[in-house]
Design brief:
With 475 residues, this protein is an alpha+beta fold. The protein has helices at 120-128, 165-176, 179-187, 214-231, 297-306, 342-354, 409-414; strands at 2-4, 10-16, 32-39, 47-55, 62-68, 76-83, 86-87, 91-94, 103-109, 132-135, 190-192, 249-253, 257-261, 314-318, 360-364, 370-377, 387-394, 418-422, 426-434, 437-445, 455-464, 471-473. Helix 2 (165-176) packs across helix 4. It binds fe (iii) ion and calcium ion (CA).
Length: 475
């Protein structure tokens, strides 16, 4: 069970009926009615609203109930489901504030490879009781079953790489059996977007990573998108049978935070230069082709239309991949990131500059390390000059293994736009936002390779309203 996409009048309540979760769900081949209740108290004596929705066979018996909750804006609420004699556990959720709100706490998190670590970070998220959580992608990983004990494999997917709807459903079910992930969903509403591993590593539009997969990739992607919708508490229609599926959207938390959530996978041009990683050769000319896009033209227009236009104190772009310039002496180290799409990046940063968008924050994940950067418009390659326009907070992975060795920390922090980085730990970022300051507190798991590890504070980073710069509060 989960909740998500709250606005000031309603929130999406999600569940799926699956008595045999790892083998197709185990439900009879018929639709089933589900009662949902939302209340002001855990005892459900003060029920705000309730309703019945049908869990349909074609949706794998998942439901997305829009729980309208009158006179509850900004309030903590509790929800549960009932089918026949069975009553679910109780989840905590919250509506967005209608208008004026002076403070909010929320989590940004991403990248939970089930095989590469335990979800201890989610236990800590649940204990923090944030107002909401923003999920920046890689909710599942598509990898085949690995062997426990090989490298950093602590548990196994147990099944081959998913290629069809049934297999993607079972993969989601496996992840959702994790008790710490369940606790984080039951602690607060989530805003969810995807990255690549919800389908396949580093895919771009309808171009798979492995060219041999091309003939079947469109139908595979379709199945993956449908399974994603079936398993996330999103305020979205199911994906169409063919064609594109729009998940980018704009949300707000009262007059404090406006947030534009992006999809940097579905509309992108294929990675330049054969997507070579960690090459120190100068970037190939294709990189700078101004017709290449990461967002696609429609989404780019949506960014221009929504970022800075919501009348909020802070203006957030929540998306998947690192936006800071981390090129090295003219080399693009990772063509999958914004560095591989510099023209598109500059268009967005110029929007922030030209329209004097105040207090712009970019949230990112993907790279399995924690980082903080000051983003600059009109910067030359390498980011040594330019006009500061936004602060980027990169959350580390919940459990996915590090991609950049910790011994590279000095190199990472030497990039001109990078303020600080922490490469050795898993975790997430806990943001506390007021009108005057944005504080990003980096929580790190001592070791995600053992169950029930300790979670503690790394540094906190403070942005003062009106100044695109970062102060470090070392703990
Ligand atoms: Fe990842
Ligand atoms: Ca990714």
């Amino acid at each position: 069970m989960a909740s998500g996409d709250p606005d000031a009048t309603s929130v999406v309540l999600w569940t799926r009926l699956a008595p045999d979760p790892l083998h197709g769900g185990g439900m009879p081949d018929q639709d089933v009615d589900v009662l949902w209740e939302i209340a002001r108290d855990t005892e459900f004596t003060d029920v705000v609203n309730s309703g019945i929705v049908t869990a349909r066979v074609e949706d794998a018996h998942s439901i997305h109930a829009i729980a309208t909750s009158p006179a509850s804006e900004g309030r903590q609420l509790f929800y549960r489901f009932r089918v026949g004699d069975h009553i679910s556990q109780t989840g905590r959720t919250r509506l967005a504030p209608a208008d004026s709100v002076d403070t909010a706490t929320f989590v940004s998190a991403s990248c939970q490879n089930y095989q590469q670590g335990f979800f201890t970070a989610h236990r800590d998220i649940a204990e923090q009781q944030p107002d909401f959580l923003v999920w920046l992608g890689d909710y599942i990983y598509e990898g085949a079953a690995a062997t426990v004990g090989d490298g950093e494999i602590v548990r196994t997917h147990g099944t081959p790489e998913p290629m069809d709807l049934a297999a993607y459903r079972d993969r989601y079910a496996l992840y959702k059996l994790d008790e710490h992930l369940q606790a984080a969903h039951q602690a607060c509403p989530w805003f969810v977007i995807w990255d690549d591993h919800e389908v396949e590593n580093n895919y771009a539009g309808i171009v798979p990573q492995d060219a041999a997969d091309a003939p079947t990739f469109v139908s595979r992607r379709q199945a993956a998108y449908r399974a994603w919708w079936e398993h996330q508490p999103v305020r979205l229609d199911p994906p169409p049978e063919t064609g594109e599926y729009r998940i980018y959207r704009a949300v707000r938390w009262g007059d404090l935070i406006g947030m534009t959530l992006l999809d940097t996978r579905q509309y992108r041009s294929d990675q330049a230069c054969l997507d070579v990683v960690l090459s120190t050769a100068p970037a190939c000319p294709e990189t700078f082709d101004p017709t290449r896009t990461l967002t696609g033209p429609d989404q780019e227009q949506f960014i221009v239309d929504t970022v800075g236009s919501q009348g909020t104190s802070w203006n957030v772009i929540a998306q998947q991949i690192v936006m800071a310039d981390v090129t090295l002496n003219g080399a693009v180290l990772n063509y999958d990131q914004w560095d591989g799409y510099p023209s598109n990046r500059e268009q967005i940063l110029r929007h922030l500059e030209d329209n004097a968008v105040p207090n712009a924050i970019v949230l990112s994940g993907d790279i399995h390390l924690a980082g903080v950067a000051v983003l600059k418009a009109q910067a030359s390659m390498g980011g040594a000059d330019g006009v500061p326009v936004a602060v980027e907070f990169v959350d580390t992975s919940i459990s996915s293994s590090g991609l950049v060795p910790p011994s590279f920390a000095a190199v990472v922090t030497s990039f001109p736009e990078i303020v600080d980085a922490e490469l050795a730990h898993r975790g997430y970022t806990l943001h506390t936002v007021t009108r005057e300051t944005w504080t990003a507190r980096y929580r790190i798991v001592d070791s995600a390779l053992v169950p029930e590890s300790t979670v503690s504070d790394y540094n906190s980073y403070i942005v003062d309203a009106g100044v695109p710069a970062v102060r470090i509060a070392v703990t």
